[in-house]
Amino acid sequence: MEQRLPTLPKQLGKLLSLLPRYPNSLLFAQTLNLALGRILPPDALLPLHGKLVCISVKDAGMDFHFTLGPKGFVAITPKHEPDLTIRATAYDFFMLATRREDPDTLFFSRRLVIEGDTELGLFTKNTLDALDLPLPDISLLAPDKVIPAVISRLLKSRQSAKILPQ
């Protein structure tokens, strides 16, 4: 008998899919900056610079679009197909983030789907796999940490009024 893996309830997925995409991408990009900013050397993800990346959470109906700019991960509104899309359920992304599952295992069991630039996908997977990432500090996701970072980032981007090429 095949084990059924946890997924978000369909009603919750439908509700989450109604949320606006850009603010979610902004929060996601800031979370990546907080989680990986001190761990990754600035040039570690150089091939991702300027590439449109989409993290798609299937059961939540949510897509997070971002790129890597000179100062870290930046949320963007997609104007074309992503260069790289990584798709899985919320549970599988949680298992990856907490290192309870290996990306190769999820990929070969078709629970993790990588679409687009295959070389970029393999580079990203191998880079993150090679890092000795500590378990995520959930306290960094507390509203009192995330909201000030997002507001600061919004104010900086508004002041510079610089738009990344899409």
What would you say this structure looks like, in words?
There is one protein chain. Helix 2 packs across helix 6. The chain has a 5-stranded mixed beta sheet with strand order 3-2-1-4-5. By secondary structure, it is of the alpha+beta class. The chain has one domain: Nonspecific Lipid-transfer Protein, Chain A (2-Layer Sandwich), CATH 3.30.1050. The termini are far apart. It is built from 6 helices and 5 strands; from the N terminus they run ααββββααβαα.
Number of strands: 5
CATH class: Alpha Beta
The fraction of residues in strands falls at: 15-25%
Helix content: 40-55%
CATH architecture annotation: 2-Layer Sandwich
* Shape category: globular
Output mean pLDDT.
Answer: 81
Class inferred from helices and paired strands? alpha+beta
The CATH topology assignment is Nonspecific Lipid-transfer Protein, Chain A
Task: Please write the string of helix (H) and strand (E) elements.
Answer: HHEEEEHHEHH
